[in-house]
């Protein structure tokens, strides 16, 4: 269909259609006109002009007898009245009879000019003098038109205006220009109206619509671009809504998680203010509780800061050449000190599969943060005298970590949601132990920044199993 073409091609084709249709109808009109002339249905412009010589001969033959009204019928038999009007006047120019009523001769001398013709546009007035010997006895006036006429006078209105016949090609051009322009306008107006309606809906913050126009032309491309823009805007607004919702969740989580340690701190301070401070053992117990909850609040704030960092679109790692073995040895020492508090058995194995123990370009601070989050989680959920194992495999440009414990493990809900922001799982296993629900979310973001991957599952026996790897940057 033509509306599927580009507007340039549509314009060209419409122009061709206008010319072809106008030319075809013009040829048909002129052909029909000449056919009708040929078969005698239409009389040519000079048809009645050709009858005049016979009438002149008849007037000269009858002479002054024509001044008698008894000759009217005979004269009218000679004059084709369907195309010629006539009038018979005497020598004083008085009207005697005829069909031409409005005779107005301004100059009497005109009747003395033999067969004088006077033109009034396409109308011809012919003066035929009635002579006897050499004197003028009267005049026969003929009035006819030099235009095509129908043989049947009642159809003259169809062809009486020869000017329309000449203008017919231009009339057809105007008509077909209007017709094809109207269709061309419809092809343009539909997508434009769709775009206007779509703009109004966007202004009303309504993105639940589709632009129903997919023709492969300029407006089709514009509508598709508008549709894509609408979809991107919808995605952006949803993302903005999610960010706003996350912000509200974050504020709610901060308020909830900070309330508990701060309430405990406040309560212990009030007790200390009202109590006898001579009991050093009791004082030490209160101060330890205050310190523990203060650290809990500090850790929560640290987690919130880390989330803000990794969620920032401009966040980048800071890699540096690091001796991986030394880095791991230091972390093992730190973790052993922590795990000894619960008498947890810490099994560590490191397998370096590199040919050369070269430095690796990694962000050791962020990897330390990842390990801290995962090991601390295992520490929280592993009972006293439990076991945590850490296996590390160092390859060229890649380090893989396996962390297992014999704690509570992951529930089915945990396995689906553990990497979601603020997910805390079973409240009895998280909130009461200061868990903010951000550690694994932060770890996942940092691992992905290292072009790595993290996964969680349960051990075949009991406990949790976390596996992740990072790549050299």
UniProtKB/TrEMBL annotation:
<dbReference type="Pfam" id="PF00672">
    <property type="entry name" value="HAMP"/>
</dbReference>
<dbReference type="GO" id="GO:0005886">
    <property type="term" value="C:plasma membrane"/>
</dbReference>
<keyword id="KW-0597">Phosphoprotein</keyword>
<keyword id="KW-0067">ATP-binding</keyword>
<dbReference type="Pfam" id="PF00512">
    <property type="entry name" value="HisKA"/>
</dbReference>
<keyword id="KW-1133">Transmembrane helix</keyword>
<dbReference type="InterPro" id="IPR005467">
    <property type="entry name" value="His_kinase_dom"/>
</dbReference>
<feature type="domain" description="Histidine kinase">
    <location>
        <begin position="253"/>
        <end position="473"/>
    </location>
</feature>
<dbReference type="Pfam" id="PF02518">
    <property type="entry name" value="HATPase_c"/>
</dbReference>
<keyword id="KW-0547">Nucleotide-binding</keyword>
<keyword id="KW-0472">Membrane</keyword>
<dbReference type="InterPro" id="IPR003661">
    <property type="entry name" value="HisK_dim/P_dom"/>
</dbReference>
<dbReference type="GO" id="GO:0000155">
    <property type="term" value="F:phosphorelay sensor kinase activity"/>
</dbReference>
<feature type="transmembrane region" description="Helical">
    <location>
        <begin position="12"/>
        <end position="37"/>
    </location>
</feature>
<dbReference type="InterPro" id="IPR036097">
    <property type="entry name" value="HisK_dim/P_sf"/>
</dbReference>
<dbReference type="InterPro" id="IPR036890">
    <property type="entry name" value="HATPase_C_sf"/>
</dbReference>
<keyword id="KW-0902">Two-component regulatory system</keyword>
<dbReference type="InterPro" id="IPR050398">
    <property type="entry name" value="HssS/ArlS-like"/>
</dbReference>
<dbReference type="GO" id="GO:0005524">
    <property type="term" value="F:ATP binding"/>
</dbReference>
<dbReference type="InterPro" id="IPR003594">
    <property type="entry name" value="HATPase_dom"/>
</dbReference>
<dbReference type="InterPro" id="IPR003660">
    <property type="entry name" value="HAMP_dom"/>
</dbReference>
<dbReference type="InterPro" id="IPR004358">
    <property type="entry name" value="Sig_transdc_His_kin-like_C"/>
</dbReference>
<feature type="domain" description="HAMP">
    <location>
        <begin position="186"/>
        <end position="238"/>
    </location>
</feature>
<keyword id="KW-1003">Cell membrane</keyword>
<feature type="transmembrane region" description="Helical">
    <location>
        <begin position="163"/>
        <end position="180"/>
    </location>
</feature>
<keyword id="KW-0808">Transferase</keyword>
<protein>
    <recommendedName>
        <fullName>histidine kinase</fullName>
        <ecNumber>2.7.13.3</ecNumber>
    </recommendedName>
</protein>
<keyword id="KW-0812">Transmembrane</keyword>
<keyword id="KW-0418">Kinase</keyword>
